[in-house]
Amino acid sequence: MATCTGWQDAKDRLKKIREEQRRCSDEVVELWEDILWDFSYKLGSEEWIIYEQVCIAACDCGRQGVALHCLGLLQTQFPNSLRVRYLEGLIAESSADYGRALDLYNTILKEEETNSIVRKRKVAIFREQNKIVKAIEELNHYLQQYMSDFEAWLELCDLYLHEMDYSKAAFCLEELLLANPYNHILHQKYAEIKYTQGGTENMELSRKYFAQSLKLNPNNMRSLFGFYLSASCLAQKGATGKTKKDNAEYAKAAWKKINEKYQMSSIDETESKTELLALQGMLESLQV
Q1: pTM of the model
Q2: 254 alpha carbon, distance to own chain's centre
Q3: In sequence order, what DSSP letters do the residues of 134-166 get, joined into one string?
Q4: Is the Cβ–Cβ distance between 91 and 59 less than 8 Å?
């Protein structure tokens, strides 16, 4: 936490946190309680935005008393504000009163259907309650309006993976890859899903996307292991003739690269060989 010697320093620090779009919830609450609470009459034009900032931070920290204090001041000043009602929903969430939080969020959406933040909060509540199907439904509805939301597509992918619906999870990543073709993590994740689905066609796709991930980031060890596994599987079970021979060569090259990486990172040569033997046994057990 930055050291603040007075109320002006504390005020400036909160402004900097807002401008940088950071949460720093513990620090915000501490600055409020230790310094700014006694100088709230000096906050000037930033008074209400600071109350909102402190309220959100207090919800993050489970400080119900601080959050309710700020909420009360905001409700008095803005009695019909949807933004203040959203804060009330956050406080209900932080105290695990999910029913009340959902009721508040639904009333906001009746008046402002395009409120994206509130829709995301509903998804978060359903996930917290382990109502994955409802979370998927809500997130699909959200993405019909905000199709370019990168994080929402990732979240939907994770929800489908939780339900082991791999084809729909793959579709989510395909949407992301169209918009982010140079993101090596997305290529890796798509390859992993295809590997999990299994079958020769999916395994070939898996190998190709692992290869693309490695092309974008040669230091991605997870993709290197994935490339080795998918190529080994195709060499053993899924392919014939020249294709089988090619995949055997790919697997051999990948294993050589893995050896090099381990030798570079290991100080003790004996320890490195032991680790590689253990690793090889583990990888062979993972063949599908």
Answers
A1: 0.83
A2: 29
A3: HHHHHHHHHHHH-TT-HHHHHHHHHHHHHTT-H
A4: yes
Question: What is the average pLDDT across 92-120?
Answer: 94
Could you tell me which of 204, 179, 205 has the C-alpha nearest to residue 190? 205
Instruction: Indicate the length of the chain as a whole number.
Output: 288
Asked if 164 contacts 137 with a C-beta cutoff of 8 angstroms, the reply is no
Q: Are 265 and 249 in contact (CB under 8 A)?
A: no
Contact assessment for residue 138 and residue 157, using Cβ atoms and an 8 Å cutoff: no
Extract the tokens encoding 136.
Answer: 């998927």
The answer to whether 126 touches 132, Cβ cutoff 8 Å, is yes
Residue-wise pLDDT tens digits, 256-267: 888 888 777 655
Q: What is the pLDDT of residue 236?
A: 82
Amino acid at 153: W
Distance, C-alpha 42 to centroid of its chain:
38
